[in-house]
Amino acid sequence: MRVIIIGAGIGGTSAALALQKLGHDVVVYDQMRENKPVGAALSLWSNGVKVLNWLGLGDEVAALGGRMDDMAYYEGFGGAEMCRFSLETVTTQTGQRPYPVARADLQALLMERVGTDRVHLGRKLVAVSEADGIVTATFADGTTDTADVLIGADGARSLVRDYVTRADEGGTRIERTYSGYTNFNGLVPVDERIGSATQWTTYVADGKRCAVMPVAGDRFYFFVDIPQPSGLPYDKQADGKRPLEEAFAGWAPGAEALIAAIDPETSLNRVEIWDIDPFHTWVRGSVAILGDAAHNTSPDIGQGACSALEDSFALGIVFATNTLGVPDALRRYEKIRAERAGDLVLRARKRAWETHAFDPAVTDAWYESLRGADGVGIIRGIVGNIEDSPVNLGGGLL
């Protein structure tokens, strides 16, 4: 079977590997011209790591991952410890240690494993069509390619999604919803003034968040949230980290040390956070979508990349076990994934509402719950996002 995948991100390349494992002829196209992913790093919780293990990348991913033993919250002003606890329970219950990883490192590994001759960059998709069971992809340079199946892993503004939902034929055009905050993220050297080198450290106050996770190479992945309207002007060259210096003026020494360490020229991304209401039309004939194209989510529970990896696992399973043809297998993939992925979108949305002071009373109550917390409730939430993953095959928690 010949497969075209549109998008060389985490979802697209992992799907390519899943289908290559089955012996299929897979080619990946992406409009980017080099590996410059949006966002500096990502949280690979146990469900995402398990998919990568299944793809044969366990040792490599472990080497890319930071060792995150503990989790701690601190008062944004003053820096007093609110709670600190071990994350070992997540590992023992789920059977896999989670790893924060630099996104570019993981994406480069996946692209290399797919094969440089199989990944074609600088190719922008402009149209999809299907006739007599053959799917045709047309690109902006006028070239075309054909296959038995096409998978759209082309992100939140997916053209393949528009084809699947018949948006240009009077069908539903899926629109994104602004989550109410802007995220700044990047990589900085590990600095114990910010937090322990083996700890997920978060400072919180006024609906803002300033956090770091360890990744390989003695680096922290930082992610900083500022509730604000969408569309505010920002010029990286002119503004740099000034919005962070203004938003976090007077914060705890650890937060100030982080912002001082940020080098906008080296690693600083600014991303408005949007998501998409869950929908269940992921397939049309021999065409399907996965990743952000199907379930664009806010990062508030750290399951965006993991959910895309679950898509790839499910896609591999349905093509390995079903024999009634491509449309049948894709419908089974949709049935496995749409409800769970949509549920994670809503969980992340609820978490964003709780933590970003869109209702100050709700956020104040959350802050109060953190003070002196033993971590049991927080870990229950983390594990709850993992336990129903299809990769667990019904036996995820012990």
Automatic annotation (TrEMBL):
<comment type="pathway">
    <text>Purine metabolism; urate degradation.</text>
</comment>
<dbReference type="GO" id="GO:0004846">
    <property type="term" value="F:urate oxidase activity"/>
</dbReference>
<feature type="domain" description="FAD-binding">
    <location>
        <begin position="2"/>
        <end position="345"/>
    </location>
</feature>
<dbReference type="InterPro" id="IPR047712">
    <property type="entry name" value="HpxO"/>
</dbReference>
<dbReference type="GO" id="GO:0019628">
    <property type="term" value="P:urate catabolic process"/>
</dbReference>
<dbReference type="GO" id="GO:0006144">
    <property type="term" value="P:purine nucleobase metabolic process"/>
</dbReference>
<dbReference type="GO" id="GO:0102099">
    <property type="term" value="F:FAD-dependent urate hydroxylase activity"/>
</dbReference>
<comment type="similarity">
    <text>Belongs to the FAD-dependent urate hydroxylase family.</text>
</comment>
<dbReference type="InterPro" id="IPR002938">
    <property type="entry name" value="FAD-bd"/>
</dbReference>
<keyword id="KW-0659">Purine metabolism</keyword>
<dbReference type="Pfam" id="PF01494">
    <property type="entry name" value="FAD_binding_3"/>
</dbReference>
<keyword id="KW-0274">FAD</keyword>
<keyword id="KW-0560">Oxidoreductase</keyword>
<keyword id="KW-0520">NAD</keyword>
<keyword id="KW-0503">Monooxygenase</keyword>
<protein>
    <recommendedName>
        <fullName>FAD-dependent urate hydroxylase</fullName>
        <ecNumber>1.14.13.113</ecNumber>
    </recommendedName>
</protein>
<dbReference type="InterPro" id="IPR050493">
    <property type="entry name" value="FAD-dep_Monooxygenase_BioMet"/>
</dbReference>
<dbReference type="GO" id="GO:0071949">
    <property type="term" value="F:FAD binding"/>
</dbReference>
<dbReference type="InterPro" id="IPR036188">
    <property type="entry name" value="FAD/NAD-bd_sf"/>
</dbReference>
<keyword id="KW-0285">Flavoprotein</keyword>
